[in-house]
Amino acid sequence: MTAEGTVAGLVSAAVIEVIEFVNPHRALAQATLGPDAALQELMDGNKRFAAERPTAFEHDLAILKQHTLEKQEPFAAVLSCADSRVPVELVFDQTIGHIFVTRIAGNIATSEIIASLEYGAGVLGAKVILVMGHGGCGAIKATIQAKEVPGQISALYPHIQPAVDQTGPNLEAATKANAKMQAALLRQASTVISGLVKENKLKVAAAYYDISTGIVTLLV
Ligand SMILES: [Zn+2]
Question: What's the CA-to-centroid distance between 178 and ligand 1, angstroms?
Answer without folding.
Answer: 11
